[in-house]
Amino acid sequence: MKTLIAYDTRYGTTATIARWLCEAVAGECDIANVADVASLDYDLVVIGSPIYTDAPLSSVTQFLHDHGEALNQKNVALFFVYDELLTEKSETYAEELREYAPPDVLAVGIFGGYFDISVLNEHDRHTMEDFFERLGKRYEVLDHRNKDDVVRFGKLLLEKLSEARRSTI
Asked: Are 150 and 13 in contact (CB under 8 A)?
């Protein structure tokens, strides 16, 4: 089975999740930034984005839009990475990504991220400082990444892909 994991990232956490997911699905797996995807000649295409300023990255939604016709012919899954302070909105984000994706997405993975305000660019740092202030929370390094969750999602994708193949026989 050939898998492509296409993603974009601002500070690297989504790339880490993509690598973990590639390990979990095994087989032939390629990882690429959405800007660098040259082909969709894969059995499974997994597309991932972090959530910034309450939305997936525009590069990822643009990728889904630009390749919509080709992706409609593929087995597609989605994932996003977000700060767990936004847990109540995770289903909203999943629906947002689905708006841009083919109608029969195999699954949507929702993963906690890593956040360290000291590595952010000036604009993002100010945005997050304001966000924490509005929440009345003190900033601290947040690490909600969980490789086991990513591995479980990878196994779920393999099961769903197997089911999809059986239903077409």
From this structure: no
Distant-in-sequence, close-in-space partners of 30: CB < 8 Å, separation ≥ 6? 2, 3, 4, 5, 22, 42
Residue 61, domain extent: 2-114+145-167
Number of domains in the chain: 1
pLDDT in tens, 76-133: 999 989 866 555 555 676 677 677 777 888 988 889 888 787 888 898 888 878 877 8
Contact 7, 14 (CB under 8 A): yes
Q: Phi-psi category of 12—alpha, beta or left, where left has phi over 0 and alpha has psi -120 to 50?
A: left
Give the global pTM: 0.85
What is the number of residues in the chain?
A: 169
